[in-house]
Automatic annotation (TrEMBL):
PROSITE patterns: PROKAR_LIPOPROTEIN. Residues 1-21 form the signal peptide. Pfam families: DUF4349 (PF14257). Residues 58-266 form the DUF4349 domain. Residues 28-51 are annotated as: Disordered. Keywords: Coiled coil, Membrane, Signal, Transmembrane, Transmembrane helix. This is DUF4349 domain-containing protein. The chain crosses the membrane at residues 241-267. It comes from uncultured Aureispira sp. The lineage of its organism: Bacteria, Pseudomonadati, Bacteroidota, Saprospiria, Saprospirales. InterPro entries: DUF4349. Residues 162-202 form a coiled coil.
Amino acid sequence: MKIILISYLFLFLLFSCDSNLEGNYQTSPKNAEEIGSTEGHRGVPGAPQAPSDLMSKRKIIRTGEMKFKVNSLEKSTKVIQALTEKCNGFISSMDQNNSNYLARNVLAVRIPTDQFDYFLFQMKEEALYADYIRVNAKDVTEEFIDIEGRLKNKKEVQRRYIEILQNKAKTVEDVLAAEEKIRVIQEEIESKEGRLRYLKDNISLSTIKIEMYQVTEQAEAAVVYKKGFFSKAVDAFANGWNFILELLVGLITIWPILLIVSLVVLFRKKLKRMIGKE
């Protein structure tokens, strides 16, 4: 009898373990969805932001400076004008000047940021010799986001003051106080909006300063005029007269010394006469 009971107990425990194992390996529909969604996100490009996506959201102001020598200043100026128009930019300033040895042209060009590298590459191709090429990138993302946030808050405060002015201001003092607050906030909003427009303009359009020059031929030497005998004689007479005048001026300058010397000479002569009489 004991053997039969032990056998039944053993079978019961065996079936219980099998059912628990099956229950542990069964997956509920909810868990299946979670696993499926997790696997679905694996390898999807849009799930984590790639570095390129992060860079595209940053606010960068790019500027450039370059100085180079060209073969023909006029031709290179036309090339820059055509290239600027092709890149949907514009020339904001131009200063061209010429000397005996050098012809220069200094330009400031505004180019869309996405055309910045292409424009610089084309300018390098135009140069015979590059004195320098400088590129600068300034990250203004933090300032841009800060201004946007402050601007949003200022507009919300302004809206509340306008509601107070329209619905809650009962006395003249309340109206004047609300209007003053609205005026001050409006000035702050305009200042922030102006700074935001400036940043947007410089972010969307890069500034490139270009100085190019062309070495020109040296100017012809001036013709040396040779004087004749009569001219030389006149100059010599004038120089002699000038010497006499300068000598007289020099004598006038040392008149105290001449006076002392004259007195000493007279005193010696008088002293000799007195000694001779004795």
